[in-house]
Amino acid sequence: MNKTISDIAQMAGVAKSTVSRFLNGGSVSEDTRQKIERIIKQYNYVPNTFAQSLKAKKTSIIGTVVPRLDSFATSQTLIGIDEELRGNQYQMLIANTSQDMQREIDAIYDFARQKVSGIILLAAEVTEAHLKAIEDIRIPVLLVGQQHEQLHSLVHNDDQAGYEMGRYVVGQGHRKIVYMGVSEKDQAVGIHRKQGFQRAIAECGACEVKYYETSFKMSEATATAEAILKEITPTIIVGATDNIALGVMKIAFSNKIRIPQDLSVTGFGGYDITEMIHPTLTTVRYHYLQAGKLAANHIIRLVKGESVEERTILDVELIPRESVDKL
Q: What is the 3-state secondary structure (H, E, C) of the chain?
């Protein structure tokens, strides 16, 4: 049976509060310290960090709110967060909201009740309800993937990603272009990424570009692409994410449309799968693992009351591959 603090205290002949003070790094006599350490070692006692945190003024737990778990970007970001937190003796709690905004708000309050030290929030948008919740809980919060003037934010350079992709597409000779984006409720992907692309297209001046909206789900992107290709014949389809691009490729293969000979395709994200498929997908690589590590570092600094930049922007990298033909 696992030993409790009470058991350790009884065997050491000290008060429970003394054992608790020892476990939390407080001062105890040398003789008491040796007794407690010997018993802990003998019974392989492992403190219940979560239970301790509920009573402590400061905890070693960081809450992370994510919109979905079935995402390469999210999983890589979480791996980075976890690695950095563990290296600094912090632990992570994850709340998955399944892209339900009310669940995001609830998760913020739930984490506060669990007395986490800080919260990393991966949100598609920041509403007044988010801001009220963050103000109410009075716990450091770091926004990742989006930015807001009232919050510390860590973002990828979506505007630059869109711009570099736009310049590349035009540079390859494409003038009849389809851009498949997502809802502008998502500021990073829905607005900034598209705006960067539009800026590059405006510099060309002789392009015919049609903009469509789909979702992050590959199945919906496939259906949208099928409808588009029945209506028009672009030389290239630019997907606002790699999943959208993969959806386009799927419907192209189903309709015996050759890539890139008949249709070029690009995405954004740099998912691992994009260099495993044939043809390999031209994309913009986002450094999600690095973002996660940096996010963890920033939230720890905020928890400790240290200074952190209001907004941190991570670089992106264009990766030209086989899915784009030069006209």
A: CCCCHHHHHHHHCCCHHHHHHHHCCCCCCHHHHHHHHHHHHHCCCCCCHHHHHHHCCCCCEEEEEECCCCCHHHHHHHHHHHHHHHHCCCEEEEEECCCCHHHHHHHHHHHHHCCCCEEEECCCCCCHHHHHHHHHHCCCEEEECCCCCCCEEEEECHHHHHHHHHHHHHHCCCCEEEEEECCCCCHHHHHHHHHHHHHHHHHHCCCEEEEEECCCCHHHHHHHHHHHHHHCCCCEEEECCHHHHHHHHHHHHHCCCCCCCCCEEECCECCHHHHCCCCCCEEEEECHHHHHHHHHHHHHHHHCCCCCCCEEEECEEEECCCCCCCC
Burial class (CB in 10 A: 0-12, 13-18, 19+), 205: exposed
User: What's the rounded Cα separation, in Å, for the pair 282 and 324?
Assistant: 7
Amino acid at 173: G
Say yes or no to pLDDT of 154 above 90.
yes
Alpha carbons 323 and 327: distance in angstroms, whole number: 13
To the nearest whole percent, how much of the chain has pLDDT over 90?
A: 65
Pairing verdict, β 118-121 and 61-66: parallel
Residue 160's alpha-carbon distances to 2, 221, 262, in angstroms, are: 54, 23, 28
pLDDT, one tens digit per residue, over 90-115 is 999 999 998 888 899 999 988 888 88
pLDDT 10s digits, 268-310:
999 999 999 999 999 999 999 999 999 999 999 999 999 999 9
Phi, psi of 133 (to 5 degrees): -60, -45
Q: Residue 98 has what pLDDT?
A: 86
- State the Cα–Cα distance between residues 90 and 100, nearest whole angstrom: 27
Tokens of 265: 């395709």
Q: Please tell me the predicted confidence (pLDDT) of residue 24.
A: 67
Residue 50 pLDDT grade (very low, low, confident, very high; cuts 50, 70, 90): low
